[in-house]
Model the fold of this input.
Amino acid sequence: MRILITNDDGINAPGLQVLEEIAAELAGPGGEVWVVAPAFEQSGVSHCISYAHPTLVAELGPRRYATEGSPADCVLAAVYDIMADQLPDLVLSGVNRGNNSGENVVYSGTIGGALEAAMQGLPAIALSQYMGAALVGLADPFEAARSHGVAIIRRLLDYGDWASDDEFRLFYNINFPPVPANEVRGVRAAPQGRRFGVNFRVEPYLAPNGRRFMWAAGGSQTAPARAGTDVAVNMDGYISVTPMRADLTCQRSLTELTNALQDE
Done:
């Protein structure tokens, strides 16, 4: 198997090293793992692409590249340049340091990388490790992802619903719970949720030179969410797997809206 991996925490991030190990086991002795990742941290860039300026791509070693761009830029660089002669069989994005459950999905560069791969017609999976108090002091805070990642991905590959004939190809979002590997309670298919009362916000900051800046800040990651959603099952110690795609249409409202807008 030929696997492309990327992330949004940057090419030197510990989570990317975990993903390299996962990808190497999946690829097998005769397979290949290609790394195309941001040169610097790109957390919170979502599905951003560097549309208005060129992006530097640097070869750091065999099958290892860094770009001065977003995770989506990295996927585009791989598809149309670095791996253009033979595209990957699978794209993995992560392992993110921190969860990409609930509202975090909308902002996540990790999700953006997997989303761009799906838009390019490639099977893709985003992986994130929920952090929390139970992981403080562990030698490896990614041990749940490291221990369970390969098995979950293999189950998804065997399952095989990638909707390749759909307008918008499916991809999968995996979140590992904030517990040690031996305390993971299992796996749950779960829809995206939202933490109650949690929003991103900005905090203004006045620099010594009088210029005004702002810091973006998130809310509590332990706030409750609707039962059965990705946030809720993660907080209960389960790995969540959520099928996603780029179509943002609210199907529930579409028919009623169509009727409301029809000319009498």
